[in-house]
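Run log // design_07
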């Protein structure tokens, strides 16, 4: 998913390849443009026998025709020797291109997840406008694409790796044979914006009915309510409360949805020092957890906010009830849905996830970094947890020093939140009711 002022993509690509040659035999694309979607498939008739052998024109020529996805994996399998050129034929949307991948050198690249020694390649497409497309592959046997850059009329587009992992796949003998393979989509927490693939999101809108149960792989259920006591610094007396709740699944604003709600209030000395009374409702798609409407009623000191947004996840827009339009990245969460989305992520340290969020007035990128495993004391109990840091793409990325601890299990139950506010350090601890001995 890409959404900037001059360039927008929200597509799913699925490719089936021959495991021996890497050549595709079927490619599927799910394309979204504004309120229109299209689903197309292409079958590739690849050469067989002698015709499949590499061309005698040179070792840099790859036989057969690739689609965009299989072409990237084919390039990763090449030796990428200094000064070498590799030629590959790529078909996309009915058009066929002759591409040259030329290795131009080596460079150390620094990213948010570390530094990499990379092999620098430039991709030239015959007969096409030169957009200075460069791919920086890790200088090892995996050749992971660390950074991709390209020039467009409006400026440079840069895609940077945020995480990498190995996924265990079923052995061929474990899979059932099928003449027409059916793709299965799995969550990819490394991609900003959504814990479910957008293709699943589209299908869910067609098939979900109000009152249907939630997907079984979600770490929470309808009716879950989480209550927190809020403390200032190391104070022993709470100064407020916070609650999160999964209200119910139904039909909201003419869409099948799931309602999340959150409320926060100060009390006692906290209310006298800084009165807070916030209520946020988030209506989300039950499969993608992406919000389609957000309602904010916030009162913090002298500041008041009472507004609602309808979020169009296909067009990348948040429209307020007063018709104010704010451009947002496709796959943007609000302040409540992001808490539930984070629980679906792979949070194994040192994972770093990115998610687009709609704060009260504008979108931001939130980086969720898994720092370490540790045991914390919550409500008098010792609990195994994972500490997360929550930073933004603002100039002062860690201004509020937000931290979050989640349970070190499949539920990723939020156990503690901390931040630094105008009143000093603030901590919110989950209220855990002691289990009754059986």
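design_07 sequence
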């Amino acid at each position: 998913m890409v959404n900037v002022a001059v360039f927008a993509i929200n597509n799913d690509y699925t490719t089936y390849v021959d495991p021996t040659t890497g050549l595709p035999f079927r490619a599927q694309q799910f394309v979204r443009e504004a309120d229109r979607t299209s689903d197309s498939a292409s079958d590739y008739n690849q050469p067989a026998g002698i015709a499949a052998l590499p061309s005698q024109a040179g070792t840099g020529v790859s036989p057969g025709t690739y689609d965009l996805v299989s072409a990237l994996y084919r390039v990763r399998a090449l030796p990428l020797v200094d000064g070498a050129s590799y030629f590959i034929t790529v078909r996309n949307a009915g058009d066929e291109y002759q591409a040259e991948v030329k290795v131009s050198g080596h460079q150390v690249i620094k990213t948010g997840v570390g530094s990499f020694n990379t092999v620098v390649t430039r991709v030239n497409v015959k007969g096409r406008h030169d957009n200075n497309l460069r791919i920086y592959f890790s200088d090892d046997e995996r050749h992971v694409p660390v950074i991709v850059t390209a020039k467009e009329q409006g400026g440079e587009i840069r895609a940077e790796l945020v995480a990498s992992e190995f996924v265990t796949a079923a052995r061929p003998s474990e899979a059932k044979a099928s003449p027409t393979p059916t793709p299965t989509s799995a969550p990819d927490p490394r991609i900003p914006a959504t814990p479910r693939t957008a293709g699943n999101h589209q299908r869910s809108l067609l098939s979900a009915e109000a009152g249907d149960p939630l997907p079984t792989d979600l770490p929470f259920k309808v009716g879950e309510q989480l209550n927190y006591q809020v403390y200032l610094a190391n104070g022993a007396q709470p100064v407020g409360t916070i609650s999160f709740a999964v209200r119910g699944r139904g039909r909201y604003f003419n869409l099948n949805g799931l309602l999340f709600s959150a409320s926060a209030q100060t009390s006692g000395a906290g209310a006298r020092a800084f009165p807070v009374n916030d209520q946020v409702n988030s209506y989300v798609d039950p499969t993608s957890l992406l919000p389609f409407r957000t309602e904010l009623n916030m009162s913090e000191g002298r500041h008041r906010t009472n507004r609602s947004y309808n979020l169009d996840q296909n067009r990348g827009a948040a429209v307020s009830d007063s018709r104010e339009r704010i451009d947002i990245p496709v796959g943007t969460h609000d302040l409540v849905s992001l808490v539930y989305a984070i629980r679906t992520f792979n949070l194994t340290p040192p994972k770093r996830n990115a998610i687009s969020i709609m704060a009260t007035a504008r979108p931001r990128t939130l980086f969720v970094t898994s720092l370490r495993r540790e045991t914390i004391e919550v409500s008098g109990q010792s609990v195994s947890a994972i500490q997360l840091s929550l930073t933004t793409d603002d100039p002062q990325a860690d201004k509020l020093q937000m931290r979050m601890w989640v349970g070190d299990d499949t539920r990723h139950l939020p156990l503690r939140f901390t931040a630094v506010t105008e009143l000093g350090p603030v901590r919110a601890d989950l209220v855990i009711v002691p289990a009754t001995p059986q």
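Residues 2-161 form one domain.
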